[in-house]
Structure formats: C-alpha cells, structure tokens
Amino acid sequence: MPKPPPQTILLFFSLYTFVTAATSASTVPTTLSLQFREAPEFYNSPECPSFNHGDTDTDDDNNMNKCSDNVVHVGMTLDAAYIRGSMAAVLSVLQHSSCPQDIIFHFVASASANASLLRATISASFPYLQFQLYRFDDGAVAGLISTSIRSALDCTLNYARSYLANILPLCVRKVVYLDSDIILVDDIAKLAATPLGDDSVLAAPEYCNANFTSYFTPTFWSNPSLSLTFANRKACYFNTGVMVIDLDRWRDGDYTTKIEEWMELQKRMRIYELGSLPPFLLVFAGNIAPVDHRWNQHGLGGDNFRGLCRDLHPGPGKV
Ligand SMILES: *[C@@H]1O[C@H](CO)[C@@H](O)[C@H](O)[C@H]1NC(C)=O
Ligand SMILES: *[C@@H]1O[C@H](CO)[C@@H](O)[C@H](O)[C@H]1NC(C)=O
C-alpha cells in the first residue's frame, strides 16, 4: 500500500542543535530590553484526556500537574541570548497542540542567569503557561567540557539536555526535549507518544545515510577498544535537538554518568570535534527508537562547516 504523502510536521534549523546558547558572557544582556507580546490563552479541545484545569493555582494542583503522566512534559533551556527563539518555540508548541493546557514546560537556566527576569519574561508573555524554571549548576559541567571546533557549542547550557533526568523532578517520567531554535507546526502530543519499544531510552530522527565516521576523530577509530564501542550496534547519526526521553529508563541506566565518562575521556584524548552531541551518539546510537524525519527538519540554518548543508526532507515544509 503506498504511503500517504508526507506532511511536514515540524521544522528545524539545526546546526544550532549544538548551539543552544552561545553568546559570550560579555554580550548577554543582564536586563532584557526585548519586550514580547502577550500570547492568548490556549484551550484544550473536548477530546483531551485532561483533568480539571479550573483551579490550578493551589500548590496541590500544581504538584499533581507537575507529575502527571497525562500531560506532555517539554524540556527546554532558557537564557537571555536565545530568548527570542524560545518564545517563538513555546508559542508554536501551544498553537499547534490540541491539548495546550496539558503541556508543562520545564525550562532549564544557567545558575548564573537572572532567574527572576527569565521567569518574569515568560510569565508576561504566557500568563497561562504551566512551567517550572530550574537552575542548572553549570559549574559542574564546565570542568568536563573540552573545547570544540565551534565555540558556540561549548556553552554549558548546551549540555543541560544530558542532565534532564537529574534536573527534573523524579515524578516526571518522560520528557520531550526541544532546542530553543525550533518551530513546531504539528501537535507535540504525537511526538510525545512515539513508542520507545521495550528498551529504548530515547527517540529521535535517525540519519543512517550520514557519514557516521566523520563524527569521531581518527584517534577514536584507530583505538581498538574505543572503536569497539559501536561493534554490535547499527549506529546511525541522530540529532539531539528533538528527543523524546524516557527519564525512568535514563535514571535506571545512569546515562548521565555514562555521558560524563565519555566527556572525561574527551578531555584526555580528543575523540570528537563537536560539543554535546557526540557523547549522545557514543551512548545511544543504534539503540534509539526512530522518529519520523519530519519531526526534525534540521539543517535549515545552513551548516556550512565542512559543507554539511542538508537537503530538505521530502514533503511540504512550513517554517
Ligand atoms: C534580575 O532581573 C530583575 C528584573 O526582573 C532586576 O530587578 C534585577 O536587578 C536583576 N538582577 C540582577 C542581579 O541583575
Ligand atoms: C566518511 O568520513 C570519513 C572521515 O571524515 C572519510 O574518511 C570517509 O571518506 C567518508 N566516507 C564517505 C563514504 O564519504
């Protein structure tokens, strides 16, 4: 039976996948001069599997919501330099959701960021948004980061995606991680419902035609014990800008530690050139659940480094 024509679901520009927050400290404004319009309230459609949203302002309700498996938990980083992208991303998620009141955003900000300013900015534009803001202790990860070929990738907040299982409350069991430079044009609940199978920890669009070799250095491939990492895996490149993560499985497998171990090795011997992505490939490539490519139309930003510009995926696109 022929497959239905693909409809583009969402679009990305994703060399930025690694570049969540790149601006150097000296250029990050300490107060935001940007003002954003207030978004309207978005309402659930009658089909939503929702609970009572009438009185979410008590602590009990907030706690219930914060932990519910019936909502879509979205994880994003938040910082002053990229806040315009984040605002657009949040709005796009709400606009295209059938159940926008069943979405909780979990924003991760640098410990050095002005959290009250970030919180106030979000609240002013999205007065009805259910969200939490977490401080990411980036001092800890800073010591693990070795300089990449793109300085933008070295920002500590770029690594927050590796720590979501530690940062988010234990009761949050699944999260959709999104980079700050994305615009969704379909319902995030569909993405969140991606089956993870019996044992996948995360789901993401895979690119098995990408030259996997090029993501690691000759030092890596020429070291027998290191290159064995991929020996029994059908490892394909995947982009970490859009991921569905089973946080329970992540915590059970202590994958944060596994990623950190690769980062420690990278500090001693250079096994890759990019930032937060390669450790994900080392730990997960070949063992992830696939997501339709339309959920990450990446490459639109024009990744000119080594001519890695990507073609659009088939199907109509909307950015
Ligand atoms: C943080 O932002 C608030 C505005 O929301 C401002 O009043 C405060 O001075 C800022 N704090 C710092 C340390 O910059
Ligand atoms: C894949 O990348 C490696 C290292 O960058 C290169 O040596 C090799 O020729 C590439 N293979 C193909 C098929 O392009």
UniProtKB/TrEMBL annotation:
Q: Give the enzyme's main class according to its UniProt record, as a single word.
A: transferase
MF (Gene Ontology)? glycosyltransferase activity
Report the EC number(s), separated by commas if there are several: 2.4.1.-
Record flagged with keyword Transferase = yes
Q: Which GO terms describe its cellular component?
A: Golgi apparatus; membrane
Keyword terms: Glycosyltransferase, Signal, Transferase
Where is this gene product found?
Membrane
| Membrane topology, record value | Single-pass type II membrane protein
Query: Which N-terminal stretch is annotated as signal sequence?
Result: 1-21
Q: Which family does it belong to?
A: Belongs to the glycosyltransferase 8 family.
Task: Report the protein name in the record.
Answer: Hexosyltransferase
Species in which this protein is naturally found? Nyssa sinensis
